[in-house]
User: What shape does this take?
Amino acid sequence: MAKPNYNFEKRQRERKKAQKQEEKRQKKADRQSAKDEAADADGSDADSRE
Assistant: This one.
């Protein structure tokens, strides 16, 4: 019987963790950009009404 390859398992865990962190960072960036766009839209509407 072959022995387990712990280095491979560790690389897989690290890759999965890095991918999850990247997705989290991307979501955060998307939320921030949406928030900035909403703030810009609200600000420009207020100026045009005056």
About this structure: The chain has a mean pLDDT of 86. The CA atoms of residues 39 and 50 lie 17 Å apart. The two ends are 79 Å apart (CA to CA). Residues 6-49 form the longest helix (44 residues).
